[in-house]
Amino acid sequence: MNYFNSLPLRIQLEELSKCRFMDRAEFDAGVEALKGKKIVIVGCGAQGLNQGLNLKDSGLDVSYALRESAIKEKRQSWKNATDNGFTVGTYEELIPQADLVSNLTPDKQHSSVVEQVMPLMKKGATLSYSHGFNIVEEGMKIRDDITVIMVAPKCPGTEVREEYKRGFGVPTLIAVHRENDPNGEGLEQAKAYAAGLGSHLAGVLESSFIAEVKSDLMGEQTILCGVLQTGSILCFEKMVADGIDAGYASKLIQQGWEVITEALKIGGISNMMDRLSNPAKIKAFDLSEELKGIMRPLFEKHMDDIITGEFSKTMMEDWANDDKNLLTWRAETAETAFEKATSSAEIDEQEYFDHGILMVAMVKAGVELAFEVMCSSGIIEESAYYESLHETPLIANTIARRKLYEMNVVISDTAEYGCYLFAHACVPLLKDFMAKIGTDVIGKGLTVKSNSVDNARLVEVNDAIRDHTVELIGYELRGHMTDMKRII
Ligand SMILES: NC(=O)C1=CN([C@@H]2O[C@H](COP(=O)(O)OP(=O)(O)OC[C@H]3O[C@@H](n4cnc5c(N)ncnc54)[C@H](OP(=O)(O)O)[C@@H]3O)[C@@H](O)[C@H]2O)C=CC1
Ligand SMILES: CC[C@](O)(C(C)=O)C(=O)O
Ligand SMILES: [Mg+2]
Ligand SMILES: [Mg+2]
C-alpha cells in the first residue's frame, strides 16, 4: 500500500515540505555515533561500493552482505567488495551482528531484500536506505524495535567517491522514518553516516522520506537524466542532418554537457549564460523560454504522476512484467545514432558554449522548469535546487565518460526507467521546435560578427536570469560550498 497516499493531507503536506539546511557545526561530532558499530551494507553496486569506501576511509567498520549466488559465482558485487579488502558474507553470517544495515540494493529488490534481512536483524538495530521508494511508495512496514533512517546522496555513486577523494562531498538528504525511531537515535546516526560520506562539507538537508522520494523521482526523470538524454539525441540528429561531421557532433554533445554544466556548478544559470556572447545569450534565452512553454505540461505531468503514485504504480507493473519497458528502452538507447557515433575532433572550452547555444538553452529550461514545478508541489527550494541545478553537472560527468550508456548504468534502475519514460514523450514533443533549429545554435555558432545588442533587451534578459528563485537560493547554498573543487 502506498504509504504517502495513506496519510492524512495535513501530514502529507508537513512531510513534503520538511527540509532544513543543517549547520556545519551540527556535524562537529563527525562519525562518533557510528564509531565502533558494525555497519553491514547489503549490495555492492553503484552506491554500495562508493558509500562503503568513503565510510571505511572515515574510520568506520564496514562489511558487505551479498546474496549467496553473488558470492558463489564471484559476481561483480563480490569482486567490488573483495578487491577493496572488505569482509564479505551471506545475510546469515553478517546481518545478526550488524548495528546498522544499509540497504543499497536496487529499489525493485527492496521488499524482498528487507523481508529476508529483517528477521535476522538484532533487536534495536538500524536499517538505512539511500532512497525512500520502498517505504513511501510500497508502504514497507519495519519491525517496531528497528530505527529506520535515510541517507540519500543527491548524486551518482561514482561522484560520491570522486568528490570525497577531492576532499569534498555531495549534498545529501537525511531523514528518520516517522514510524520507526524507537530510541530517538535516528537523527544522530543519520548525521554520523552523512559525515562519513563527507556530505557535511557540501551541505546536508534534514528532510523526510516523502520529500526525498517525490523530489528525487522528479529530478531524475526530468532535468537530470531525461532532458540530457532527449537533448543528446535531438541535437546529434539535427547536426548530422544539417551536414556537420558526426565525430564533431558527437564530441560537442558528449563533452559539451560537462563543460556547460561546470559553469552552472560554479556560478549557476547566470554564469552559464554569461559564458555566451551578448547575441548568443539573448538567443539562448529566447530558445529556453520557448522550450519552457512547450515542455511545462510534460514536467507537470511527471510531477503529478509522482505525487499521486501513478508513476510508481506503472513502474512496479513493469517490474512485475520482467522489466519489459526498461529493457526495451535500454536496448533502443544503445542503438541511437548518437550512442553509436565515435567522438572525435579538438574542441576548445569556449567553443562548447559558442557552438552549443541550444544545449545551454535546454539546460536552462530544464533546470528552471524542474525547480519551478517541484516548488509548486510543496517541495522546499533547497531540496528542489539540489535535485535540479546542483546535480545536473554530476550527471553530465557520467555522459562525458561513456555517453548515455554510462549515465544509465551509473544511475539507479528507478532513475533509468524514469529517464526513458520522459525522453520517449519529450523527443516527439520537440519535433516541430527542432525542425526550426539551424546550425547557428547547434554546431556552428552564430554568424554575427559583432557582440553588439540592444542594451535595454540585454538588461531585461540578465534580470530575468538573475532574479529567478533558483538563482537566489543557489547563490545562498553555493555560499556553503566553499570547499568545492573544480574539475575543468
Ligand atoms: N545509482 C545511484 O547513483 C543512486 C542510487 N540511489 C539509491 O541507492 C540504492 C542502490 O541503487 P544502486 O546503487 O543504483 O544499485 P545497483 O544496481 O548499482 O547495485 C545493486 C547491488 O545490489 C545487488 N542486488 C541486486 N539484486 C539483488 C537482490 N535481489 N538481492 C540482493 N542483492 C541484490 C547487486 O549485486 P548482485 O546482483 O551481484 O547480487 C548489486 O551489488 C537504490 O535505493 C537507489 O535508488 C540513490 C542515489 C543515487
Ligand atoms: C539522478 C538519479 C539518482 O536519483 C541519483 C544519482 O541521484 C539515481 O536514482 O540514480
Ligand atoms: Mg537522486
Ligand atoms: Mg534516484
TrEMBL record:
NADP(+) binds at residues 44-47, 67, 75, 77, 107-109, 157. The active site is at 131. It comes from the Bacteria. Residues 208-352, 353-484 form the KARI C-terminal knotted domain. PROSITE patterns: KARI_C, KARI_N. Pathway: Amino-acid biosynthesis; L-isoleucine biosynthesis; L-isoleucine from 2-oxobutanoate: step 2/4; Amino-acid biosynthesis; L-valine biosynthesis; L-valine from pyruvate: step 2/4. Involved in the biosynthesis of branched-chain amino acids (BCAA). Catalyzes an alkyl-migration followed by a ketol-acid reduction of (S)-2-acetolactate (S2AL) to yield (R)-2,3-dihydroxy-isovalerate. In the isomerase reaction, S2AL is rearranged via a Mg-dependent methyl migration to produce 3-hydroxy-3-methyl-2-ketobutyrate (HMKB). In the reductase reaction, this 2-ketoacid undergoes a metal-dependent reduction by NADPH to yield (R)-2,3-dihydroxy-isovalerate. This is Ketol-acid reductoisomerase (NADP(+)). It comes from Spartinivicinus marinus.
